[in-house]
Amino acid sequence: MLNEVYDHTKKQMSKSIDALKKDFSTLRTGKVSTNIVDHIKVDYYGTPTALNQVGSVIVTDATTISITPWEKNLLSDIEKAIQQANIGVNPNNDGDFIKLFFPAMTSEQRTEIVKQAKGMSEKAKIAIRNIRKDGNDKIKKLEKSKDISEDESKRGQDEIQKITDSNIAIIESTLSTKEIDILKV
């Protein structure tokens, strides 16, 4: 019974860390990445569709992303979606494709992005703590219903804390890696 609680807790915490890594991938670092435009949705015949589903999105150099739509009539819709997404650059439409030119980041921008990363990691830590609380509640419920002894309950809660501590450490190391990546010029 306790192993089921541990497994569930580990699985949920792992999902939180995966979500954090996905959030981190949207942050801009020294060189651009197509992840910056992953969240942008284009109105494709009345359906909000991911940008990479209506055209090819490639990084042409360290500061440029090129978007080539599969249908030429989507150029203006893609341009509008990028402007509404407010990613810090204006799209350049040349009639065949759209280019996004990202200027070199200033130290203030880098510091601001590090703050965003810290905020994201703090949310992930809160999620991990909530999962810990759920795991501990399940263990206490098992103890209350006499399915496990008081000693087993204590050991179970200690194990949940160990799982929590290791996941918090993963978040910290992921954050410090991302921080180095952001601040690297």
Helices and strands in order, then pairings?
Blueprint: H1 2-25, E1 41-44, E2 47-50, E3 55-61, E4 64-69, H2 75-85, E5 91-93, E6 98-101, H3 107-144, H4 150-183
Antiparallel strand pairs: 1-2, 3-4, 4-6, 5-6
Descriptive overview:
The chain has 185 residues and is an alpha+beta fold. 58% of the residues lie in helices and 15% in strands. The protein has two domains: 2-26 and 106-183, Ribosome-recycling factor (Topoisomerase I, Chain A, domain 4); 34-101, Gyrase A, domain 2 (2-Layer Sandwich). The chain has helices at residues 2-25, 75-85, 107-144, 150-183, and strands at residues 41-44, 47-50, 55-61, 64-69, 91-93, 98-101. The strands form two sheets. Strands 3-4-6-5 form a four-stranded antiparallel sheet, covered by helices on one side. A hairpin with a 2-residue loop joins strand 1 (41-44) and strand 2 (47-50). The protein is elongated. The N and C termini lie far apart (51 Å). The mean pLDDT is 91.
CATH topology of the largest domain: Topoisomerase I, Chain A, domain 4
Characterize the overall form: elongated
The succession of helices and strands, N to C, reads HEEEEHEEHH
Assigned CATH superfamily of the largest domain: Ribosome-recycling factor
Measure the end-to-end span.
Answer: 51 Å
Number of helices: 4
Mean pLDDT: 91
Strand content: 15-25%
The spatial strand order of the largest sheet comes to 3-4-6-5
Total individual domains:
2
